[in-house]
Each structure stands twice: as structure tokens, then as C-alpha cells.
# Entry
Amino acid sequence: MGWRLRIMTYYSLHQNSAIASFKQATLLGQAPDKGLYFPAIIPAFEPKWLKDIEHHSNEAIAFETIQPFIGDEIDKSSLQCIVQETINFPIPLIDVTDQIAVLELFHGPTHAFKDVGARFMSRCLGYFTRETHQKAIVLVATSGDTGGAVAHGFYNVEGVDVLILYPSGKVSAVQEKQLTTLGKNIHALEVDGTFDDCQQMVKTAFADTSFTGKLFLTSANSINVARWLPQQIYYLLAWKQWKNKSMPPVFSVPSGNFGNICAGMLAFLRGMPAHRFIAACNANDTVPSFMETNSYQPKPAVATLSNAMDVSDPSNFVRILALFHQSQEKLRQVLSAVRISDEETRTTLRRVHHSTGYTLDPHGAVGYLALERYLNEYPEKAGIFLETAHPIKFYNVVEPVINSKVPMPESVKGVLELEKKSVMVEADYLALKAYLIRSYS
Ligand SMILES: *Cc1c(COP(=O)(O)O)cnc(C)c1O
# Structure
């Protein structure tokens, strides 16, 4: 691109904190007023660059997508290196039917799409803390996949410890092993509660001023700009591979905390072609209800087959509203939100497997059905659903439904044999605080 921003600033969506640079926002995670950081401007893609996208390498696309949000705070060759390590696995777009293609985001080390954001963020944090001598403690609440992706992304990164909080008994066997078996600088806290409890404990820790100046706590959830922003790359890589450039795709995104879909809509507002976005949700339907009633009423989270989306109060929804300047009318022109039940998830898994041979995971099945319903209404359109996890991670759900085995990748076989190491804690902030004090002071 012909021009470059030298610096990007971020403001807190609560409007009560000073503006921050990319570095500051990455190190802090959340703004001091507990708001989410949001870029001060939305940098547009250059139309000619977008038009030529098929001729750019994946690395070049990733670099141009993320660079304006960082400016000069990471030098060009270091950023190129970070980007290369972030997407050093395939992200293929594959036709499932005439109208529906799948963007497979599960070819990374933990077979979940969160690998991209986690790898990018860990390397940025490593870059920024290289010169400080204080240990960074990354606190992360996970409903399943974030934990494994963050654990792998940060494994062995010097000067960084990772504490993963996950809801006991509410993640899959593979997910649990991925986040409890690494050791070294990765520690797993098994919380006797829900994902929302885990998220609340982490939020409270960040707001706890008794740690200020003593411990350097930061987040790796999708609220961190360094986790959230690189997710735009998926959509650009989908567009690169989309054949019918005269008819931009509908994107259907299995959504929990709404970080992924929010990144897609950001790419769209920067000029990337898309017809529409569908937030595909499970029974945790706060956003679908909001789109129906105009009233935002989070209910307690309920457990579903697509457990990484069991989120009742999605943190990133405020960013989506900010993207559309709080205008629900503008938002509705771009976004639909639908709820899909567990029963529908099962029948979709079975039907798609039988009719096309493609094996979905429960999250992908939610995305598939949401897209299919839309296309039934608008048969002249075509679309892409994001497959956010490999079906092997949910084999206990998938195999009985499709009545056959999901072939197990070698890397998953290995992890299932390792011994789980976790510390059980109550769903209470004081339990986390006690752990932090015991371990780090
Ligand atoms: C995290 C996750 C989601 C939800 O993504 P958000 O960005 O939180 O909306 C969907 N599917 C899988 C497999 C996930 O791990």
C-alpha cells in the first residue's frame, strides 16, 4: 500500500481512560476503566490491493491487514516474522455444496481457529516485554478452545507465565488435555463453576488495584486487541480464494464472545467485499434476542454441544455496536443473528455427513445451518461458514451422530496420553487472588 500510519491510537469504549497505543493496549488488555480498547480510526484497504488479492501471498495479506493497527511500534521485519509464524499453516476454502463453502480454520497446532490470534498476541507480547524485566502473567478464561491455543501460543515464551481458568467438567477431553498437559510456564486452574464465572474472576483480578505495581497481569481473551485484530486475516484469505468475485459471500460465523465475527465486520468496513454476516449462536441467544427485541438481556449461560460458544454476555458485542456507531439500523443492514438448538446441531451434523461426506464439528454445524437457512430464503446468493474447530475435538458428540469414526490426527493422539495437571479452585475471585499471592509474591 502506498501510505502507512505511523501510529494507531486506541480509546476505551467506556470513554473514561486515556488513549493508548497498540503496545499499551496489548500490555494492558483492558482499559483502566474496564472498557474495551477500540481503534480511533478504521483504516481502509486500498481498492487496487483488494482487487489484486489473488496475486498476494498469505503472508503479504496478513501483513497488510494488521500493519495499520500497529504502525511503527513493531518494526517491519519483526512484524513480518510475527505474521509468518502466526499463519504458517493452511487456511483452505473448500466447496461443500454448490452454494456453501467452508473456511477451515483448524489446521493450526491445537486444531482451533484461536491459534491465529493466540500466536499473534504471544509474539507481540514477547516483543514488547523483551526489554522489561518484569514477568508478565497472562490470565485467560476459557470456554474450551482459547485455553489450548493460548497455552501453545505462549509455551516457553520467556518472561511470560500463563494462568488458564476453565470450567470444570464443561470442556471436552481433548480441550482439557491441551490446556493441562504442557507444564513449564503454563498453569491450569480448574474452576468449580461456569465459563462466565471464570471470565468474571479474570475481570475482577484486572480491576484489583492491590496488585498494581506488584504483579503485571494481562489478558489473552479476545478483548485484547492483539488477539482480536489478527482474526480479520481469515476473511481476507477467504476472499482471496472465493471464485465468484462479482458476488461477494455471506459469512456465517459460529459465535460465542463475538470476537471473530466482529473482526470480520471490521474487515468489511475497511472495504473487504461481503454480502452479509450471520452470527450463528447456540441456545445462548442474547444477541439473536437483541436483534429481535432491541433489548439486551443476558441470561445465565447454558451448556450446549457447541461449548466454546456457551457465552451469555459476549464481551465483543460492544465493539460491534461501536463499529456501527450504535446505529441498530445500520447494524441490521449487515448482520443477522440466529439461534440453533442442540437437536438441530445433531441433525445437521448427520445430514451433511450423509449427503456431502463432509464432517462438521458442533460449532461448524451451527454455522452451516444458519447459512443454509439464509440461502434457502435467498437462493441466488452463496456463502461461507467458518469451521472453527476440527471435529476430532468433539468426537464424543460427532461420532455417535454420524455413526462412524473421525480419523484422529497424530498430534491429538499424543496429547490424550499425557497426564492432566490442574489446580481445583472455587468459583470465587478470592480463590484466584490467593493463588496469585501464593505463587508470585
Ligand atoms: C471460541 C470459539 C468460538 C467462538 O468465537 P468468538 O470469537 O468467541 O465468537 C466458536 N467456535 C469455537 C470452536 C471456538 O473455540
Q: What stands out?
A: The chain has a mean pLDDT of 93.
